[in-house]
Design a protein that fits this description.
Layout: E1 9-13, H1 24-28, H2 40-48, E2 58-60, E3 62-67, E4 70-75, E5 78-80, H3 91-99, E6 107-110, E7 123-124, H4 127-143, E8 148-152, H5 156-164, E9 168-178, H6 188-193, H7 197-212, E10 216-221, H8 227-243, H9 252-261, E11 266-272, E12 278-287, E13 292-300, H10 307-323, E14 327-332, E15 343-353, H11 356-381
Parallel strand pairs: 6-8, 13-14
Antiparallel strand pairs: 1-3, 2-5, 3-4, 4-7, 5-6, 8-15, 9-14, 9-15, 10-11, 11-12, 12-13
Length: about 400
């Protein structure tokens, strides 16, 4: 593929295991938000396990930009035959296309499959290379006569590059916990003391119910998580989907692969009864270099009051405080997280539509939705769970 900048070459890779992508992780390390989910090992595990591959509706079309022998930009891209596993919902757009006799799928998606964690998506050595990458994405969409292209959960630099190409912006919100700065919390009790009285009492009551049920937790990190632990976690993970009459996106083979190639990025909390029997598990992803932790998956083999809050919020927050981590991201959606000290954080996505009429209609919709979202975030901000300063 050629661009207006004749000294750049753009390549399309149909497999993240393509040897030509070897410089990927080195390029990722140069970005402002290099989350572990953007590592090449993560994408290879998704692809090779069949979790995100052509047969599951995720056909890789990774792009790389070359200046001579140097890879100066790259991004994960997929041809999608559905909108599952994205967390930025465009089902209404697809329905509108269908009602007008037009094909919405396949579409081009720049994202990490099943992972709504904000971070760098357009890996680039500089802004010029990032713009060439954006041009390549649009050129690929046009060449394949796709309905649209989408960039999800990128950084400010990513979405600025998209807007420079005329893409439309969409706003969302997540809930993240931040360690106190410049003086971090001394412990979980110190964190509780910073909350308003009613929020603090609610957390204390929820934790007490779990203790009264005779539940204690074991935390295992990296190589400490053995195969039997992963097996138990996956059983819990499956049960969560089964309870919602759904099927897990990720296979057991996927977790085996990331356990082998990315062991240092995983933390597993296992809930046990007094007799040592296991009842629940919560998997957390870690970015030690950034001091960030990410709540990912959980499940339980039996219902226990407040166990979800303990496994997915209080145990990870306590661990983050003890280890000096700066941030814990609780995943997509969930206003209930505010009462537990996670505050609203805006997220962004960018969208390109080929059809002029639909592009205009979606632009109007996004303008109205964006105004409503800003009002929603302002409303959330007015219900801070923390004590007022002083």
């Amino acid at each position: 593929m050629k661009t207006a900048q004749l000294d750049y070459v753009i390549r399309v890779h149909e497999n993240p295991a393509d040897p030509a992508l070897a410089p990927w992780n080195r390029l990722l390390a140069q970005q402002s938000q290099p989350t572990p989910f953007m590592r090449l090992e993560y994408f290879r595990a998704l692809h090779e396990s069949g979790s995100a591959a052509a047969r599951s509706g995720w056909r890789p079309q990774f792009l790389s930009v070359w200046h001579g022998d140097e890879m100066v930009a790259a991004c994960p891209a997929y041809l999608k035959s559905h909108s599952y596993g994205e967390y930025v919902f465009d089902w209404a757009w697809a329905d509108a296309y269908q009602r007008h006799g037009l094909a919405y799928y396949p579409k081009l998606l720049v994202a990490v499959p099943f992972t709504p964690v904000p971070g760098s998506r357009l890996l680039a050595t500089d802004e010029a290379a990032r713009q060439v990458l954006m041009q390549g994405l649009e050129a690929l969409a046009r060449q394949q006569t796709l309905s649209s292209a989408h960039l999800l959960f990128g950084t400010a630099a990513d979405h600025q590059a998209a807007q420079a190409q005329g893409w439309m912006e969409r706003q969302g919100v997540q809930f993240h916990w931040q360690n106190r700065c410049p003086e971090p919390y001394a412990g979980f009790e110190d964190f509780l003391a910073s909350l308003q009285r009613e929020k603090r009492k609610k957390i204390q009551q929820e934790r007490r119910r779990v203790r009264e049920a005779g539940i204690w937790f074991e935390a295992r990190q990296g190589a400490q998580i053995v195969e039997q632990d992963w097996d138990f976690f996956y059983r819990c993970y499956q049960l969560t989907y089964r309870a919602h009459h759904s099927t897990p996106y990720l296979s057991r083979d996927f977790f085996a692969r990331v356990a082998d190639t990315m062991a240092e990025h995983w933390l597993l909390f296992i809930a046990c009864r007094a007799d040592g029997s296991r009842v629940a598990a919560s998997l957390i992803a870690l970015d030690p270099a950034q001091g960030a932790a990410y709540g990912r998956y959980w499940g339980a083999v039996e219902p226990i009051s407040c166990l979800h809050f303990e496994a997915c919020y209080y145990q990870p927050l306590q661990w983050c405080i003890e280890q000096g981590y700066r941030r814990f991201e609780g995943g997509a959606q969930g206003e209930h997280k505010m009462a537990r000290g996670l505050l609203p954080v805006p997220t962004r996505s960018s969208h390109w539509l080929a059809h002029p009429g639909f592009k205009e209609a979606v632009a109007d919709f996004l303008a109205q939705e964006g105004q409503a979202m800003r009002g929603y975030v302002d409303e959330l901000e007015s219900h801070q769970p923390f004590k007022a300063p002083g």
